[in-house]
User: Fold this.
Amino acid sequence: MSDPIDAERKRRADAILDEILDLPPGARTAAIERSCGDDDTLCALVKRLASNLETTQSDFGSGGAGDGPLWDAVLDEEDRVGEQIGHWRLTRELGRGGMAVVYLAERTEGGFTQQVALKLIKRGVDTDETLRKFAQERQIMALSDHPNMARILDGGATEDGRPYFVMEYVDGIPIDRYCDEKKLAVEYRLELFRQVADAVAYAHRNLVIHRDIKPSNILVTESGVAKLLDFGIARLLDDEDDRTKTGSHFLTPAFASPEQISGSTVTTSSDVYQLGLLLYRLLTGRAPYRLEEKQRQALERAICEEPPTRPSAAITTSGGDTKTIEISRDRSTTPTGLRRRLMGDLDNILLTALRKEPDRRYASVLQLAEDLERYRAGRPVKARPDTLSYRLSKLFLRHKVASLLTLLLISSLLAFAITSQRQAQRIRVERDRASLEAETSKRISDFMVDLFQLSDPGKARGNEITAREILDRGANQISDGLNDEPEVRATLLETMGRVYQRLGLYDPALAMIEQAHEIRSQSHQTPHVDLIKSANSLAWILEERGDYKAAESLYREALEIAETLFEPPHSRIASTQNNLALVLTREAAYDEAIELLQSAIAAHRQLDPEGADLADALANRGTIHRQQEQFDEAIALNLEALELRERRLGPDHPKVAISLNNLAVIHSNRRELEEAAGYLRRSLTIREKIYEPTHPSIAESLNNLGAILFFQKEYDEAIPIFEKAVEIDRAATGDQHPDFGQSLSNLGNVLHSAERYDESERAFRQALAVFEAALDEGHWQIGLNRGNLGGTLTQQGRYNEAEPLLRSCFDIMHTTFGDDGRRTRTAATKLADLYDRWDKPELAASWRQRSESEDSP
Amino acid sequence: MDSSGDVTQLLQAYRDGDRAAFDRLVPLVYDDLHRIARRQLRGQREQTLNTTGLVHEAWLKIMDGGEAGYADRGHFMAVSAVAMRQVVIGYARRHAAAKRGAGQQAVTLDEGRVAIDEHAHQLLEIDQALTRLTETNPRLARVFECRFFAGLSEEETAEALEVSLRTAQRDWKRARAWLKEELLGDSLA
Assistant:
């Protein structure tokens, strides 16, 4: 090992360099050795510097488009024309690539001159590694002739240790230029391509992956024979270590496969992809990705994530786009003609080859070639377009699951909407209807694909677009267009509105559904089925916002229309009955609700016994059972509903979560905390999976979980959970919604139990205010909350304030639940406690009596 | 902020022999160049800097603003070379933060076009190599700065560094030989 080269030596070296600079090259060595004396290190250094001088370089200032990498631009170019390497003498330079220079070389023997291409690896590549690998890769040398491969004839290393390969010299031009110059039509391009595919397939059979298939690596001779160059060399020189060390000089980003870019395992499938790229270019004259930004990062992201442009779509037929006309002329056709040729099979073949996932492409080059052959022979090809859901799911790769589910929800809702639209218009000939449906659903699917198209890759926002943004974008699109198609517009508006609703965004939801209803009312003077739908939707959202009265009247309106239009039993009637019953339940008008639900259940059992609608009706009936404290019946119905929902809707559906939640509530009412907790956790898991974290359903689950903890006396755990739920509810529903009140009430209860009475008082007051505003006087929830507040005030010793509240509570409970209702007895107990502390023993005793009964625990 | 008045004053001072003025000039010129460069880069998709144009443009700006004489041009060029290196390397540093990659494009050094994106890493290595060269022979490094980073011609370089044309030419040869050594030297030891 030589001494490290220190600064002093370097200065001396520079001085000596200066001296010898003007000497002729031959005289330098001697002069150097003289000046250096016996300092070997110095000597070697100056010699190196001198040899650096030697390499010629045309003027730095001129010199057109030098094709070397930066190394060469800064360092002098090397020109070894005239030199002898092995058997070969270099006669001229053919070209330069990223890692090597190619020379034309010849060998004269026995009067016969053989011309070859000699590829010499440049300085700067880690040559020791390369030599080692080269020795290992003898199998490549052993490849026998294939007519479409430039055969490798020889190889070795120069005296200064640089590896080289000797290849058959191909006198030709790159394949893309060849095709364009000869104005080859699509058929002939496919022919040429087949030659290339043959060669690659052959190599794969011999276990060699090319890895660097691109137009400049494929030359076509004058006689029309395509030859693939550089075979296996890419694999030879590129290896795990090399890639990290040298930073991969060898990778041309525009032609790389996704797995090459991401550094995953490269298999023969990568060659399939690159062949796809090649064919794409040959047929369309451009690249599949928008590559206007040549910034490397954006390019790599596009290759790995952006779906390629459909080949036929790449040919614009509108307008006089000169580029397209030129491209078509190079293919001896017109833009329209070219587009038509590409549409369908060729589209699908190319897109299959260009799939991002290696295992979704053609399994082998052979299969790709076979499909092309099928196409040529007019037989059906095997390539299939991506299914819509696959395509859309790919678009959502980076989005939350919520967005995907929302999308699926939209698509199913839209599909339903369109279908029911069609069904309503009964006067259609069979044939027409079929094509209309196809067209409409295609329009819808195009709309949705557009809707969810990712924005420019250059946007630096991070990887998430929320479902909200997608919806907003879609909402705008609907508002802007479709003015002359009120039906479709109303349907889309309503559907979008329902999606907003499911996301808990009630204000925009309401606006859209109102709009839809408005449009429909104007279009239809007489009762019409669509009015039922929008009335239902509108009512539903009013209900969700807590405006129960308005919702009730709209539901009644919808029910009237339904009963006018249809004969019972009919699913529309049943659904509307169900909805009306639900809002009546909230208003505690149980009797009518029960009637409606019985009717709905009976209808559904007849019409669709496995359906989700039946589950809805059963669940709602179960809720009433629970409110009336008939727990066994409640459980039975909810279990049945759960089973139906899981089977029909799948395990991760919001309604499944609702059922689980309901069961949890029932069990907790019965103090069966373990069962309750179990159901609750399941419900929360589902909800957290499908909703954004601020969704009101999550608040509901949190409320319930908090309640369990509360019953288990885990107050410290419960308090933050309720606080979180309160916040979510406040954000989602505003501070006038009964659900918000419920959260506050729960929070108050746990604070009360934790003896934080000041805080619980605050919570209870707030909750009470909400309920008093939202519900009618006399509603049991108002009573309940008065009782809560009264209880806290009792603990704080504010007996005067507590008394009226507790009395009112008892009165309401007594009216609603009767003498023996649990809640009635609880209210009585509270009063007893009050008078105990207040030191009024007679009152206390009398209330104590009323609070007890035979089954009192 | 128009600094051309300051620049001309400092150039004057430098011309009159105040060496320290040079150091104070660099940041001012840097700002100008940086601004112009940013303007230029914003318009382009591929991030190339026409370094010669930049320097000339900056000089014109100075000329317009103040009473800078032609005699100062050389000095200005010298300062610009230093500042240009900072501009280019600054950009390179930002772009080199991205994934390491190659697949270099062609780099044409006529008109001093330096393609930044693809060569960010190489540029940084050149910068480091140049710093090492400065220890050995600072004038060679300055010549390299002028030629490569500022895209100055041989004559302009000579003018900027106040040496003869022949010296500038010889220095350029030596500078390149050293750069090659510095860039590759490690693998040979």
Observations:
- The mean pLDDT of chain A is 76.
- The radius of gyration of chain A is 40 Å.
- The first helix of chain A runs from residue 7 to 20.
- The CA atoms of residues 477 and 844 of chain A lie 67 Å apart.
